[in-house]
Amino acid sequence: MAQLVRENLAEAARELGEDVRDLRGYDYAVINDHALFPFRYSDRPKPLERARFPSQTSPTRRRVFWGHGPPPREGLFPLDDDLTTEEYEQLHEVFEELGAATRLVCVFFTSNAEEGIHAIHWGQARLEPDRTFTWLYSEPLPVAPQPLD
Q1: Alpha-carbon span 122 to 139, nearest angstrom
Q2: What is the arithmetic mean of pLDDT over 82-93?
């Protein structure tokens, strides 16, 4: 479902004359330097606050958040260059394919094949190390009613 949403967002961006950028074989809509990142966080209704990346989430998807999402919270002490590893630095690098200045706009939803989309939200979220999200801003979007059989 997330793939269909991503493809539909990319097609809508093309129709509006906006950018669509390829990131590792996936097209992402980029509107006014904001990449739209759809993510289905559950196949049943669930509050947005309970959204979480699965443990097997690819490093690429994590890097999209860490490189283009809101900056991390200030920790107990700053990590100087000599305290970070090369792997840590790579996870926080931006994807030039999206554009170095491109920021992330999250489009999170719950859905399943039988009921369609239950809820959808958009906003800015920071991916935390425990795979949860801290929402700096979120807003629910209206969901079209499902047609009766």
Answers
A1: 6
A2: 58
User: Using an 8 Å Cβ cutoff, are 100 and 112 in contact?
Assistant: no
Name the amino acid, one letter, at 78: P
User: Which three-class secondary structure string do you get for the chain?
Assistant: CHHHHHHHHHHHHHHCCCEEEEECCEEEEEECCEEEEEEEEECCCCCHHHCECCCCCCHHHHHHHHHHCCCCCCCCCCCCHHHCCHHHHHHCCCCCCCCCCCEEEEEEEEEECCCEEEEEEEEEEEECCCCEEEEEEEEEECCCCCCCC
Rounded CA separation 108/101 (Å):
22
Farthest-apart Cα atoms in the chain, separation: 62
Which residues, other chains included, contact 91 with Cβ-Cβ below 8 Å and sequence gap of 6+? Answer: 59, 62, 63, 66, 67
The per-residue pLDDT for range 3-60, each reduced to its tens digit, is 788 899 999 999 999 999 999 888 999 999 999 999 999 999 999 999 999 999 888 8
The CA-CA-CA angle for residues 140, 142, 143, to 5°, reads 115
Nearest CA to 124 out of 102, 100, 105 is that of 105
